[in-house]
Structure formats: structure tokens, C-alpha cells
Amino acid sequence: xxxxxxxxxxxxxxxxxxxxxxxxxxxxxxxxxxxxxxxxxxxxxxxxxxxxxxxxxxxxxxxxxxxxxxxxxxxxxxxxxxxxxxxxxxxxxxxxxxxxxxxxxxxxxxxxxxxxxxxxxxxxxxxxxxxxxxxxxxxxxxxxxxxxxxxxxxxxxxxxxxxxxxxxxxxxxxxxxxxxxxxxxxxxxxxxxxxxxxxxxxxxxxxxxxxxxxxxxxxxxxxxxxxxxxxxxxxxxxxxxxxxxxxxxxxxxxxxxxxxxxxxxxxxxxxxxxxxxxxxxxxxxxxxxxxxxxxxxxxxxxxxxxxxxxxxxxxxxxxxxxxxxxxxxxxxxxxxxxxxxxxxxxxxxxxxxxxxxxxxxxxxxxxxxxxxxxxxxxxxxxxxxxxxxxxxxxxxxxxxxxxxxxxxxxxxxxxxxxxxxxxxxxxxxxxxxxxxxxxxxxxxxxxxxxxxxxxxxxxxxxxxxxxxxxxxxxxxxxxxxxxxxx
Length: 486
Ligand SMILES: *[C@@H]1O[C@H](CO)[C@@H](O)[C@H](O)[C@H]1NC(C)=O
Ligand SMILES: *[C@@H]1O[C@H](CO)[C@@H](O)[C@H](O)[C@H]1NC(C)=O
Ligand SMILES: *[C@@H]1O[C@H](CO)[C@@H](O)[C@H](O)[C@H]1NC(C)=O
Known about the structure:
This protein is mostly beta strands. The chain is built from 5 helices and 31 strands.
């Protein structure tokens, strides 16, 4: 999981010394509202805690995630309602007996007794939905199921709690109404209104991060709903960004291993049937005929190929570059895979383009360093990226290489990349990430120096190569002539 906060070593130390709290009496939740936006590969969960300090000098609030919740969560951030600042968040330990993970939020100031605050905790869950039924024939609709534990896990008592599930359309097939909900309410415990199902309000909920509660009172609920877009997942994304000062160019190349995680196709694929549904309107929601991706402004020379070769049926609308400080519209590329992607099918393709290096780089005279900002990834809308590898290839002979990723990678390092016409090879930065979402779109900053002599090496190498080619061409011509003579 990526915490939207980078710890300093000092804070990390205090974190290690801290033990977990499964019950805490420094706060109470006067109200908790959780909204779960169920969708495709990504589910966004927003929980607002209206908290009241029961003790003075309360500066750390603890949030808790159940086992399943924790496993699915790939993003976690906390803010004070209405404020932009993301609050520092630290791992607070794991209690294996109850299967609960704790995180500590550092509040902006120590709260006085009876002081209140509204804390908003946002998480993004991945792979939390699944197609149900698991199979669909080519013309069938698509439905998904989302299952979760109902009550918000918290080490504090809660006076009032509501849990809402919002689906993309009001077409909800079913939702669970477990009998145990009556324990905390005298009203109708669950209601549906349009595309929203509301559980609660529930009153006087005890500490939920406790064995007694989790064993006896926690409820399991499921929502089954229609989903009208393909369930797209990127199993693997490999990005290669190559910086060339000589060509004043930044080349970015992405290889995607895409998967339609929708219901598996029942029976055989019929192209005829597919073409008729395409002709008479929208194709079934579980078929992916094309996808649109956003690329940076000011790009040129795009290319798109798959395992078979170039794919020509793609459409690019480039927006002009506004320089590195200007805000500009992204370029839009509509990709049409070689075949429509049915549920359970994979598609591997490569997408590349060039950009003026000046849009991404600057030179700092004082330190003699170049600073280049490389976008972390290309977003496929609504998709999770299970595994990402990002390679940033620097100019030959670059020294003093440093990099500043927006989020802590699972793995990173510097290697050497040797290509044609290189004399000593190029330093390359490799970063690996797992389960990226739209929240992780960021920029990796790279700084380095290039010695003046290195600028000369490349033209020299190219000149040598050209001389060689020229000589070869000359020979070939002579050869040619001799053949024609025959
Ligand atoms: C906090 O609120 C409670 C209940 O309203 C009250 O009894 C108590 O005196 C308050 N404490 C302080 C320090 O204001
Ligand atoms: C693919 O397209 C690129 C650029 O348009 C071209 O240079 C290349 O030769 C093409 N490759 C094939 C196999 O058609
Ligand atoms: C798609 O890729 C996954 C993972 O590599 C694999 O398990 C699955 O069998 C592939 N599906 C098809 C239809 O090839």
C-alpha cells in the first residue's frame, strides 16, 4: 500500500517504538459516515469521522483497517475536512489476533478536551469487485459484485454511523440485509434510493477493533449491480523513458499487458455478431473495442504496435505544448486493438512517442545539474496497474545521478544501459511499483550532471559510424555497378 506521506528516518524510529492500540480512550467518534463508490477495478472509499477529544493534548488519531480491507487498499490518505493539506500518516502496527491493521494520523495540532474535528479518510481499493455471473455470452449484460465488512473498524466508540454504497447506475440487482443490524437501530436498517444504498443510522457502536465485536457483531454485506463499462486491468506496465540532450528529445515507450477482467466469454466469439452489435449501437458492456488514453501535450511521432506489428487503426489528437510551466490540455489517443477484447482476454501492446526535452527539463546553473521530470505512468481510465516497472535512461556519461519519486517504490536502483553508438553506456534508473491507481499519477524528478566532454563523444561516435556507412555505401555502389554491368 502507498501511504500518501513520506516518513523521515526520525519519524520512522518513533513509529517502530510505538506499539499498536486496539482500544483507545482519548477520542470518541460523534459521527461516522462512510461512502463506498463501487465501480470496476477501483473502488473509492471515503470515511468522515467527526471526532471529539476526551482527553487533553490529543494529537494522534488512530484509524483501523480490517484484514480484507487492508489487503485491497492501495491508497490511503487523511485530511481535515475542507483543507487541502494531507496529514502525516504512520503505520501503527498489526494485531494478528483480530486481524486489524492500525495507522496513526498526526493531527494539525494537539486537541483540547471536548474539542472536535472532522477527519476525512480516503482509500482506494483495487480488485475488490468481481463479475457475477462469472460467464457471459457475447450479447449478455455485465454485472459485478462487491463484498465487504459493514461496520467501520475503529478503536473508539461511535455515537452514530452510516454506511452508504453508491453504484454507477440505479440498476442494483440485490444487496444484503443481515438480521443483526437491529442491535444498533430501531429504524429500518437499510434503504435504497436511486443508486445509493444506505445502512444505518446505527447508534452507540462500541469499540469495533475488538475481538468480541468482530466475532459477534461485524456484518458481511454484498452489493450486486450492473456495470456498463469493460472491467480493464493492467497486469504489467513497462515504461522506458530515454533522455537525449543531443536530440533535445524525451522518448517515452510504454508496454501494456492489458486484461479484460469482465465475465469470461461463454461459447465462441462471433465476429459477425460483434460487428452487428457495433453497427446497431453500443457493443455489450463487457467487450472492449477501443480505449482512449491521455498523453502529454506537445508530443509527436507516436507509434503503436502489438505482437503482430503496427496497428494503424488509432487516432491521435495532439494538443500543443505550453512549455513546462504552462497548463495545457492532454493529447488524446484512441487505440483500437487488433481484435475486440472479450472477458478474460489479454492484449499486449506498445505505445511510444517523442516530446521536446525542454518541456520536461531545466538546467540549474548554480549546481551545474539538469533536472528532468518524468511522468510516472500513462493512465488507462478506471484501471489498476498491478505491476509497474519504470526505466529512465539518462544521457551517456551522466554523473551525480539522483532521483525523487512521488511515492516510495517497492524497489529502485541505478544500472547501466548500453545501446548502439554508446561508448560507455548510460546510467538508467529503475523503479518498481505495485497496484497503481489514478491517485498515483505523479512525476519522478531526476537530477544529474553531464560533463562537457560527454557532449562531444556522441557526435564523434556518430561521425565515425557515418564514415563507416559512407565507406560501405561507396563499396555497395561499386558492387552495384559491377552487377549491373553483367
Ligand atoms: C466536556 O464535556 C462534558 C459533557 O458535555 C462536560 O461534562 C465537561 O465538563 C466538559 N469538559 C471540559 C473540560 O470542558
Ligand atoms: C511501423 O511504423 C513505423 C512508423 O510509422 C515504421 O517506421 C515501421 O517500419 C513500421 N513497421 C512495420 C512492421 O510496418
Ligand atoms: C491472460 O494472462 C493471464 C496472466 O498472464 C493468464 O493467466 C491467462 O491465462 C491469460 N488469458 C488468456 C485468455 O490467454
